[in-house]
Amino acid sequence: MCREKPFHLPFFAPSSQILRLPSSSMAAAARRLSAASLPLRHHHLLLRPFASSASGQPPIAVETSVPFTGHKIEPPSRLVDTTPSELLSFFRDMTLMRRMEIAADSLYKSKLIRGFCHLYDGQEAVAIGLEAAITKKDAIITAYRDHCIFLARGGSLVESYAELMGRRSGCSKGKGGSMHFYKKDSGFFGGHGIVGAQVPLGCGLAFAQKYTKEGTVSFALYGDGAANQGQLFEALNISALWDLPVILVCENNHYGMGTAEWRAAKSPAYYKRGDYVPGLKVDGMDVLAVKQACKFAKEYALQNGPIILEMDTYRYHGHSMSDPGSTYRTRDEITGVRQERDPIERIRKLILSNEVATASELKDIEKEVRKEVDDAIAQAKEIPMPDPSELFTNVYVKGFGAEVFGADRKEVKAVLP
Amino acid sequence: FFFLGPSIDRKMWGIARRKNLGQALQKVLPAGSMTVREALNSALDEEMSADHSFLDGLESTRISKGLLEKYGPDRVLDTPITEAGFAGIGVGAAYYGLRPVVKFMIFNFSMQAIDHIINSAAKSNCMSVGQISVPIVFRGPNGANAGVDVQHSQCYAAWYAHPDPVVFLENELLYGESFPISAEVFDSSFCLPIGKAKIEREGKYVTITSFSKMVGHALQVDTFKGISAEVDDIVRAVKRACYRSILMAATT
Fold first, then answer.
1. Cβ neighbours of residue B188 under 8 Å, at least 6 residues apart?
2. pLDDT given for residue A399 in this prediction
3. Min CA distance, B204 vs chain A (Å)?
4. pTM for the full model?
5. CB B215, CB B235: distance < 8 Å
6. Nearest CB to B98: which of A184, A211, A396?
C-alpha cells in the first residue's frame, strides 16, 4: 500500500555545519595524530574513544545537524566535543554494524538464517551514540532489532552470527535466535519479541538500580510502533511517581512494521507524549547528537526521574526480512535518506574535513571491516547445531521433576531436574 | 515490592485496622494455630528480613500489616491500578536481581499482566539460556469467592501450573480461617517442598485430590457411602509432578 501524504525529511542536515578549530597548528597536530593512529589494528571489537586529556588529542567541537527540541526541559547545547580517535571509532563501529546487517541479509536469503531477522542498518548512530555516553554498568533493554545493540555492548561477531544461524556457540546457545541476544554482564537485558513489553521491564531495571543505589540508569529502547502501547504509559506513570532513573528512547524510524507513523499515532511527536515527563527530540542519524542527548538524559534521570528521547532515525531495510520495505514507502525516499542523512557518511565527511584521516585510510578501514565480517561468518558456519538434549536445558531454574515431552509423548521425553 | 492493585482510602483503612484490633482482642486463638492471613504476613515478614533485597507490596488488606512500618516505603510500595505496568516493573527488577512479590488484587486482573508473567518472566530463563532468571512471586486471591461476579471468581490454577515463576494462588474466603500448626512452623527457616502432594487423610478405596478451599470441602466427606476416602492436598504441587503422587495413591 502506498502512502498518500508526502514524506517530509524533518532534519535536512547540510554537511557544512561543522566547526573547525581556528589554529592551523591544531589541524596539523590532528593530522600528525591521525597518521600515528592509522592504520587501525585493534584487537577488540569496538573501539572506545579515549578521553582527550588522556591521549593528548586536541578536542574537536562539532555542531549537531539541528538543534535539539525540548518538551518541558531546556535542551542541551548543540555543540559537542569529540576527539579524532572518537570519530574514527564511530566510523569503524558503524561501518562494522552496517556490514554485519547487510551480510545477515545475504545469509537470510541463502536460508542460513531462518525465522525472524530484523535489521538495524540506517539506525547505527543510535546504538553507537548511546554507547559512547554511558558505561557498561548502565542497563539497556530493547525489542527485537537488537543485533547492533548487542555488538555495542561488547558482543562478538562470531557469537552473533552463530546465534543467527542457530549454532551452539551463539550467544544464546542457538536457542534464542535473532530476537533474543542477551549480555547481562554488560548490562544488556535483551532482546524481546513482544512489542512494548521491554518498556515496563526497563523501568523495573531502573527501579532495581535506584534500590541498590548504584548511580546508574536504564535505557528502554522502543520504536514508533510500540510508542502507542498502553503499558508504556502505565510504566511511565509509575516511574514518574517514584522518580526512577529510566530513559525511554523512542527510535522513531517512521514506520511501525508497514504502518507510517502518521497513520498509527494521532500525535507523532513521541518526545511530547510523556506529557508531564520531559522529552527531547534528537536527530538519530547524527551520532554526536545522540551522544550528547544520552549524556544529558543520564544526568537528568539520575537527579529527576524519567525522560523521553525521540531519535529521528530511519531503517533502510523493511521491518524484517519478510518485508521488502517498499510497499509502504518509495525507493526514492529510501535513497533520499541514504544520500542526505546517512550516519556513516556524516562521520566520513567530518573526518575528512577535520583531516583526521584520508579517504584512502577510511577505505582501508572499510576493507578491514568487510574482511572481519566475512571471517566471522566463515567461522560461525563451521560451528555445529546444538545437541537435541539442549531442548530441555534452562527451561526452568528448578524443574521440580516436571516431565516434558515432544509432540508424540514417546520419543522425545525428559524429566526436568 | 508491590502492591496489589489499588489501595483503599487511608481513612477507611485506618477504620478497618481499628476494627480488626478490636476483633483480635475479642477473639482468642487456640494455641498453635494461625489464620491464613497471619501465616501470609509472617511468611512475608520472615523472607523480607532474611533477604535484604526482598520486596513486598502494601495492600489495602491486613496481610501486609506492619510491613510498611518495619521495612519502609522503599520496600513496600503502593501502585496505581495498572497491572501491566507494575507487573512489568516487577519482572524488570527481578531481571536485575531483586526478589519482588507482586500482588494482584484478584487473579482475574493478572490477565492484564499475563504477557509479563508468561513472556517476560516464564520464558526468560529459557531464552537467555540461564543468564536471566526471574526470582519473582506473583500472589493474590484466586477462584471462588462470596457473591462476586464471574469476572472476579475465575480460578487460574490451570493457567499458571508451572514451576517458574512462582504464582501463589490464595483464596479470599480462607484468609480469616484459622488452622492448627505444629511448633516447627514458627521457625523462620521452615519451608515446605514444592512438587509433592500432601496426604491430608489416609483412606483405603478412593482418592480425592483437590487444592485450596476445596480441600476443606473434600475433608468433610466423612465416608463416601461407607467407603473410606483419602484426601490429597495438591496445593503445593506442580500439576505434572503430582501426577506421580496421585497415581501412587490411586494404585495402592
1. B46, B50
2. 79
3. 27
4. 0.84
5. yes
6. A211
